[in-house]
Amino acid sequence: MKRFWTALAVALLTIFTGAGCNDYGNTFQNNTGAFLAFLSPSQIPAGTPQFTLTLTGAGFVAKTKVQWNGKNLLTTVPTDSSGNVLGNMVTAVVPAALIATPGTVSVNTLNPASGAGQNGLSNPVTFIINNPPNLVPTVSSVAPACAVVGNALPITVTGTNFLNSSTDKTQVSTMNWTLGSSQFQFTTPAASITSTQITVTIPATAIGSVPGTTAAVTAYNPPSPPLPNVPGSTGSGGGTSIPSAGSTVTVSSACPVAAQAGAKSDATAAVTEEAPAVSLDGRYVAYAAMQNEHSQIFLRDTCEGAPAGCQPRTTLLSVATDGDPASADSHSPPSVRPRRISSKLRRRAARFICATLVPAPPIPASPRPFLFPRIRAARSSVRRASCLRSVPRDASSRFSLSPRAMPRIKLRRNQNPRPA
Predict the structure, then answer these.
(1) 219, 252, 285 — which closes off a domain?
(2) Which of 136, 170, 175, 308 has the greatest number of CB atoms lying within 10 Å of its CB?
């Protein structure tokens, strides 16, 4: 019997010894200090300046210290008007150096020891240091700044703070296109985005079919991603750029060449200096403009001197008989003054066009600019050009001659132009 009680005493001693000590010889104790309910704030982005952390709970005393991963922080214990400790709240200053890196931190309080077995520690609460916030993008310019109705438009958006992560698909800037009440958002591959430029193609459906409207272009950055495997972590920052005067695109039936500064056509620089050609009666104006990255020739009917009911309109001239735009650049001759189109020149050009609608060897290149004309010739002149019989008449009973990618026609200056 005596042996039984001896064995029981040894067993109990072993149990209590194991429960009170660990492998390092430290004594385990339950927390005997204050009770910590929550932190405010409970998380913050990395890289922010120092801030004041508020801890709410119970049991705080005058000498309570806030600990950040076991290190004491500069702590303030609030008191009432009589100097008595409130006991339910303390604050501490967290230096910027402690929140420079994303991660998690254990926060607790420490009360002075009040006797044997009293460690003065509160329960710990986790504080989250999130990823740094994404910056808000800016848009300074859009090129080209003109879109032709019914045509897709490749544009380059220039600004700052664009995102182009190749590993996280959520961390990529998107481009917003707002036209009237319609809003579109376009996402491009990260390879098409740098920190200062976004290249994107606006589809024809987003450009619409109404000339004279203006689309606003803005960029959007998403918030930074949350920390992986950290419950409660959130992203921060990001947002939409503020619209500016340089972040708009005008929708038009034809775009001036100057608006196509971002186009890659070799003819862009030359076209910007080309002068328009004006008919002798002042009604028609032919001019060069950019469309789909190519210089094209357009004819503007101003209805000057026309019968009542005439509606001004702009027509693409450098097209084929099936209506397709020319696939190469078209130009008009350079001039410091507007050129005039004589009836003699129209007849000569009509005969030349007729000859070029059939296979023929290419004309040698010339150092002078040329023009793809769409000539409005008298009906009698067109009848003599039998190869143009299939060309349809327009509303004014004249013929529209529309060659496809034909050799360019050199316009000659009228020796005695009349004033407009």
Answers:
(1) 252
(2) 175
